[in-house]
Here is the input.
Amino acid sequence: MSLIPSFFGGRRSNIFDPLSLDIFDPFDNLPIANVPSSARETSAFANARIDWKETPQAHIFKVDVPGIKKEEVKVEVEEGRVLQISGERSKEQEEKNDQWHRMERSSGKFLRRFRLPENVKMGEIKAAMENGVLTVTVPKEEEKKPEVKAIDISG
Here is the structure.
């Protein structure tokens, strides 16, 4: 058992596992009020890790989504320049005769939202997935440089 709450359906390693760092949890069987089991199971994956960088040409979002197919991820833009990235990793099917020794990979839904700045080209947003990393590129509008007009000095 572990001092860290289990997000993976209560499965923990075998106490006879010599590599196990799990220890007794005195709070393991206490009821947690108003927290549905689905929330406990998905909370570990709910915060997909995202990097957001700005270059002179674009805003670039990189999301770690290992083991998820591109069909299981949605990238949407809502009114008010809100970029929404969501998806779900399905739980692995359990077979009746399987004995789990460790289940550390998280499953469940994730949803991240970002308000985009005003200087982006909303119609030109692109997304690509490669090697478990989703990259969303939001191009920026070119900055309009103020026109400088020379004034003749009389006299």
